[in-house]
Design brief:
The chain has 17 helices and no strands. The chain has 406 residues and is an all-alpha fold. The protein has two domains: 191 residues, no CATH class; 200 residues, Vanadium-containing Chloroperoxidase, domain 1, CATH 1.20.144. Helix 2 runs parallel beside helix 4, helix 12 packs across helix 16 and helix 14 packs antiparallel against helix 15.
Length: 406
């Protein structure tokens, strides 16, 4: 079987076969999927040293980059003529190809970098990039960025999961289908819903991720992922780190969020313009808390049966601290961004994002949530926030017009 043969070559010759295999894949030649080869090399790397993993990432990136650049060159030199010749029966003209080139050029960053995670799509994007005449320098930069992200992800996961590296391949097949459906969704939205596409995208992507995570939890397919992430995070357990994580998780607790909300409402109560935001912060906190509790009751997932560094009760999915914390601090970050014109709004928004991520990590570290609980909380929180912000903005405009304060 060709797969076993390739893996035997990888064991014997290592990174040279990885380089050739990935280069061949991006030229459209039949070969073992890149995700499988890279995950396997990540697994082999842990038997050596961390340098072995870095070498594998370097050779994988080089092979991916080289194959993609050759495919781009073929498309650039010969692709347009071939496409126009084959497109005559469907009346494909150079004018229509130029329009397609403009449309592709607008989305080239996303397509070139992230299409690698979708089998089939990643094989044709280099050729399309050449046919649409993207400049060599621009394509090379995007190509390299995508190669580093793709190769680093799968080799890193293979190294992290060790002997369970094959689980990555199964997950990759599932999530590549999800990504393909997302691309179809993007096309339909851009084509037919131009006036509302930003809101649709902002809600749909995290919502689809939440649905997928929920499905995997129901099917109990994330145990390898959850155990591997916890094992990695738990390796940092020390007394001082535990105290710090307890402090972070405290910042995401209901008591703190209610206290901050009350302080804001009291502080801005005399300012008609900002009083509205105070009450909307409270409404957002209440609504996201109710929604999170509803999800917990629906999924009924028990908390991890591992070392717990704090006492806690209740169900596990999705993480309340992650979901509600993202909704709460994310909405405050939005308010700061809209109303602050100084340079301070950038660091304050970055600080809010860092705080939300840190709160999520603290829940895994303290042993009270699985990593999938935290990801589920983040995705549900993003979907809710994407819906709540435009609603609050419209309400604020109505409120402002009524009071004539703008």
């Amino acid at each position: 079987m060709i797969k076993d043969f390739i893996f035997s070559l990888l064991q014997k010759y290592g990174n040279s076969i990885l380089f050739l295999g990935l280069a061949a894949e991006y030229l459209g030649l039949p070969f073992v999927p890149g995700e499988a080869m890279m995950s396997f090399m990540g697994f082999l790397g842990i038997k050596g040293s961390w340098l072995a993993t870095l070498y594998s990432i370097f050779f994988a990136t080089a092979g991916t980059f080289a194959g993609s650049m050759i495919a781009w060159l073929i498309g650039y030199k010969y692709g347009e003529g071939v496409v126009l010749k084959l497109g005559k029966p469907i009346h494909l003209t150079k004018e229509k190809l130029d329009k397609a080139r403009v449309s592709f050029d607008k989305r080239r960053v996303v397509l070139i970098i992230f299409s690698r995670f979708v089998p089939g799509v990643r094989h044709v994007i280099p050729y399309i990039s050449g046919i649409t005449k993207i400049e060599a320098e621009k394509y090379a930069v995007l190509n390299l960025a995508g190669a580093v992200l793709w190769c680093g992800s799968f080799i890193g996961l293979g190294s992290l999961l060790g002997e369970k590296w094959q689980a990555i391949v199964n997950l990759a097949k599932t999530y590549s289908l999800v990504l393909l459906l997302m691309l179809v969704f993007i096309f339909v939205t851009v084509k037919f819903f131009k006036d509302h596409q930003k809101i649709i995208f902002a809600i749909a992507f995290p919502l689809l991720l939440f649905i997928k995570i929920s499905e995997d939890i129901v099917k109990q397919e994330l145990s390898v992922f959850d155990n591997s992430i916890y094992k990695f995070v738990a390796s940092f357990i020390t007394e001082d780190m535990t105290d710090f994580m307890k402090f972070l998780t405290f910042l995401g607790s209901g008591l703190v969020l209610i206290f901050i909300t009350a302080i804001v409402i009291i502080a801005v109560r005399k300012n008609k313009k900002y009083a509205f935001y105070g009450w909307m912060i409270g409404a957002n906190l209440l609504a996201s808390s109710i929604l999170n509790e509803l999800f917990k009751v629906i999924f009924h997932r028990e908390r991890p049966d591992i070392l717990r560094l704090i006492d806690i009760t209740g169900f596990s999915f999705p993480s309340g601290h992650s979901m509600i914390g993202l909704c709460f601090y994310g909405f405050i970050a939005y308010i700061l961004w809209v109303n602050m014109k100084s340079r301070w709004r950038y660091p304050l928004v970055i600080l809010s994002v860092a705080l939300v991520i840190s709160i999520g990590i603290s829940r895994i570290y303290l042993g009270v949530h699985y990593a999938s609980d935290v990801l589920g909380g983040f995705s549900a929180g993003l979907a809710w926030l994407a819906a709540f912000i435009p609603i609050s903005s419209r309400m604020y405009k109505t409120y402002s017009d009524k009071l004539q304060i703008l």
